[in-house]
Structures are given as C-alpha cells and as structure tokens.
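Write out the 3D structure for:
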Amino acid sequence: MRSLALLAVLLAAPALAQPAVPEPVDSVDPMIGTGGEGHTFPGATAPFGMVQLSPDTDTSCEIRACYGHAAGYRYEDPTIQGFSHTHFSGAGHSDFGDLLVMPQAGSAVKLEPGDPKQPGSGYRSRFDHAHEQARPGYYAVTLSDSGIKAELTAGTRVGVHRYRFPAGQDAHLLIDLRSSLYNYPGKILWSGLHLRPDGTLTGFRETRGWAPGRKLYFAMRFSAPLADHAFVDRDEAIPYKGFQGPGRGSDALAEKLGKALEARLDFGRLAAPLEVKVALSGVDEDGAVANLVAEPGDFDAIRASTRAEWAAALGAVELDGPAPIRTSVYTALYHSLLAPSVWSDADGRYRGPDDQVHRADGYTFRSTFSLWDTFRAEHPLLTLIQPERTSSDVVRSLVDSQRFSPDHILPVWQFAGRETWTMIGYHAAPVIADAYLAGVRGFDANAALDAMVASATYAPYGGLGEYMKRGYVPIDKEPEAASKTVEYAYDDWSIARMARALGREDVAARFEKRAGNWRNSFDAKSGWLRARLSTGAFRTPFDPTAINYGSDYTEGNAWQYSWFVPQDQAGLFRLLGGDAKTVAKLDAMFDYDNSKLDYSHAEDIAGLIGQYIHGNEPSHHVAYLYVYAGAPWRAQERLAQIVGTQYKPTPDGLAGNDDLGQMSAWLVFTSLGFYPVAPGSNEFVIGRPFLDRAVLNLPNGRRFTILADGLSPTNRYVSTVTLNGRPLERTYLRDSEIRAGGELRFTMGPVANRAWGAGKGARPYSLSTSGPR
C-alpha cells in the first residue's frame, strides 16, 4: 500500500509542481515602456478611462525638451514630484499632467517642487522601485523622504488617492495647479479654486499647450475634514481677461482665481489613511461633482470594480506561452485598451472642438485620437474585440467632432475634444471604413461617409487643394509632400470602399481614381517614392536615407515611405520590377548598414533594423510585404527578428513610444499570427505565431482559436496552415472567418516551406489585381 501511495504521489508531483498560470489581469506589467522612449505611464486607470492617475517624476522641462517625460513618469528618474490625473500613454508629444497632488507630513509645507538633484529642496520626494507596485487600475509607492505610502486607483471618471502618513505627524496635501507636462511661460491662462460648504473642493484651469484653450474642471472630496487650508496665487500679475471660470461667489467658503494657484490642505494628525476622491469634467465644476456622485464607493470598492473591468477587457484574448512573451503580449493588450479615452460626462455632456458644450445622445463621446499612428493596428484590434463597446462610440465621436469642428474636418490628432493638427492625412477615414466594412453599426453610415468626403476635399488642409488639382502634393507648395501624397491616396481608397458598400457609386468611382495617385509621386526609374515640384520634376538632390523634419517625408525617409501603398502592393511591386526584385529591395532595407548615418536629431527614429524603423509607424507593415511578393517564409524570419529585438518585458521593453497603443497592437496581432496591412480590406495577412495557443473570445459569443504546434525558437517557420481542419493555401484570413469563430492551426518547423503562399492566387488583396471588391 505504501508503494502504491508513493507512486501516486510521484505521478502527481509534476502536476503539483507546475506554477499556476496567472490571470490575464495579473500578467500585465504597466512598467513596460516607462523607461527608454516608450513614454507609457505606470499609474491607475480604467479601460479607456477619462482619468489616468499616475506619478510625475519631473515636469520642469520646457516644450520639446519634455519629449522624454511625455507620460510624466520616467523609470530612470530618482524622485516623484507628485500625482496628476491626466496622461498620454506612449505619445510622441507632451501635454496633460493636470491637477498635481502631493502629500506632505510634518509642520512645514513646501510650495515649490525643488531641484531633483537636491533632496529636501522642495516638495518632491525620492523613491525606489523596490517600494513601488503597478497593476491594472492600481499603483502604490512609498515616498522615501517623508515615509508616506501613496496608493492610487481609478474608475472611469474618478481617481482615488489613499495616503498613509507616519504616526504622530500632521497630514497635508499640496495641490499645484501650475504643474504641467508641456511647460512654457504663459501656458496656464487662468485657473480657480472653490471650497464649497459641504467640504468639496472644486476648481478649473484653462491651458494653452499642445491643444489651445483646453478647459478642465475637477471636484475633490476627502475622507477626513479639513483642519485648515490656504489658497495661494504665486503670480499676482494682471488677471487674464478672457475665460474667467464660473466662480462660486457667496456659495463658496473660500475662492481664489489666478494663473499660478496652489492649495494647502491641512488635516492634522489622522488615525486612519486619508482618502481623496477626484472627478474630472471637460464641461464645468458641477459636471465634475456629478461625475463624482456617479461612481460611488471608497478606495477599495473602486479598485475592485476597476480590476473586474480590466479582467473582462483583457479576457477578450486568452494567451498561452512562455512567461516572458505572455507578459509582453498581455501588457500590449492592456496598453491597447487605454485610448481613445472617455471624454463625455456621466450625463452625456462634453466640450467639443468648437469649445462649446454638446451632449452625446445614446453613446459615450471619446477623445485622444492619435490617428496617424492608430489607424494601422490599434483601431482594427478594437474593431475586432470591442466593436459594440468601443468602435461604434469611436465612429460616432469622430463624426460628431467633424460636425462641430470649425473647419468641418474629421479629427487629425485630437485630445480633450481639442484639435492639435499634428501629423498628416485624414486617417479617421480608414478607421470609419474599416469598422463599417467589418460590420460595426450603431451610427449613421451615410453621414459618416459625408464627413469622410468633407475631410478629403477640404482644400486648405495639408496641400489638399494642390493634391486635388494635380494628383500629387508639390513639395514647393507644401512640406512632407511625398508622404502626404501616398497617405491621401490610401485614405481615398478607404472612402471608395465604404462608398461602394453603401451603393454610392459616384463617390466610389471618384475616390477609386484618387486612390491611384500614389503613382504620381513614385519615380519608377529610380524605384523610390519622391517629392515632386509643381513643375512636375522630382526634387533634387535626393538621398533615400535623409530624415529631416519638414522635408519630403513625415518622420521617415524614402526607404520607409516607398512601401506605403497598402491598397495596392501588387501595383507597387510591378513598378519595382516584380517579386524577386521586391524581395531583394526588402532585404536591402533590413540589412542596410547604418554605421555612417546619424539620426540623433530625429526623436521618433528608434528601433532600427537597417532602414526598417520599428519605433515609428511607417515601417510597421513592411515585414508583411514579403507575403505579397510570394515569400511568406522571409516574412516569418523578419517577424522573428523584430519581435526578438524590439519587445521585452522590462521598463525599456518598447523600442519607441507606444503612440496610444499602436506599437502594442502590432505585437498583439503579430503574436497571434496575422496583421491588418490594409485596414478596410477586410483581410489580415498571415505572418507567424509567437504563442503556443491563443483564443479570441469574440463579442458575438464565438471563439476563434489559434494553435501553433511545435512552436519553438528552432521551429520558427510555418510548415502548414489549416482553417477549421482544412488546408489553407492562401496567405490571408478574412475578417468574417475570424468573427465566425473556429480554429486556425499552424504547424511549425525548422525549415522554410517556400512553396506555401508562393502563388499569385494565394496573395492578399491589392486594388490592381483584386478590383474594387
């Protein structure tokens, strides 16, 4: 009996010894991307939340010098300046950092942040990562200089702080309305603080930063009564005569208006941790109070609710694989679910691009659109896994933004309802088209198409008048002309696709013709996309490796932009001389020797593999182009090279800034084994998987399972592919096949299968070979 019992224990031992696979929410590491140039923040937020409550390690930079602190927090910094309520995730530009709160203990309260190189010179504090924790919806750190433990959590429109002060010391909060992540003289146009009779502190500020005239309101309540307070204006200059804020008048116990406001809040000695609950609004202070009421509960209740929201959102994808790649991909999914963020209040009101208050009827208005980046993979991912909750809201938000835009154009790079006019193209068009063609409804499709056409025909924008007249953007009339020409042509194709689906044949024919305008800037003799003068001649001198802002290309050069024809890669490859020459040029791009080049002047040029630049978006589809040339096995090699060098589960684990989820969405799709090279085509190009198993739990209740038999570092090639048990010889999946549910199975091997996908009939959509279908 003893022998049998021992045998049973031994047989069970391996299973017992296996560590439990963590839940998706516990597999996320928000610290990934907080170092290097990832520009992510580690703090607390809900999926697509209006509030991003996170530590700021330094806000002392000025304008473009703020690039390294675009998210407020940088892993390498030794001090925390405070905790503010708004942040971008991975942006290539800085702003936000609104409503900085910093706890202090003791008798004296410091009003200046001080020098990070001189401990004790101000209210900032040293910290170390050993006493720091970050999880979806939760962040905690112990401030070394004061011994205060700070915890942060957030709901959709609220952020909650919890501070544990050292025993025997007075507790204070400093609220600094001067602080921002985009600093220069005169940024704070006006601000106000109002203490209401019930103890609620409300306020506002208007800023002139990346987005002009941005207004933000807040309401703040405390778990302990105030013992004392002081509102201080650090700049008693002549008052701003524009927007004055609502004022509280006789309703307020205390009120202060000014350009450089701080609030000192004293609570005495506390027997319990202090909780501070804050709600934001873009409408008014009463809207912030209503948002505060709309999300009841203390710190622990809000934290539990948000954790449940994250568990549901991340549960849309089940991932099995080694811990490092599992952590990287789940964190990438997490970063993909942060924006576009909620901007309307709980009652539906929001402040639009015309600076007026509107009401979202039956949907949640969203903002924070980095469309030049996110149309590529971020929005297709949301359309696939969150069409009802997210994509319909996104489309309605875009269309209503166009309705209320003073220029009647769809958003370009919008946040907090305000347009920045950053980057190029009218890439809201492919976002809308891709969603509609994938079956997302809940919006007026014809009104959406009208908004797309209005944007594509707004002559004052980005050389569009010249583009419509000549079929290309001339470089002597408009900077970055080569990039604009090809990006406009792609956007035009997406408009044509939606118009044809709606039966509006006149619009479809017009924009299908415009979709071919990319040829007008492609120099077939040299094989490069080049900028042309208004005379028709290509501009000289020409260097395909040159990268200069405001030149022929946008954040790139001819090496990257010569591949940007997502709608007609087959047409491009014919101009390059066919498949073999295309593959040779792709290889030359990846294998280019950069040793004699210096790109230090270009902030967004990071993650170089030859002239392939993964840290910036124009390269993101390029590895998949081998598939269009009949060499999927070469794509499989390049994808392994990119994933292996550009992503890792560490603070510096992103090669470049995440750009509101685009870098992350690329990894999510690529790890699954396919990627949307041409959003709007209803196709995903097959690459190779990086996970043993993945399941998409689709909103329609179906499940799409991806299996990778034999996957290992050695077995990096796709030997065979089956879809629902049948051999799949083509190199793409249809959107409808994924949404129907089923099984995609890869058999992996150590040797390239050069026959699979080599035939022209196996290749993904191209306009010139597939027609306008």
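The first strand starts at residue 44 and ends at 45.
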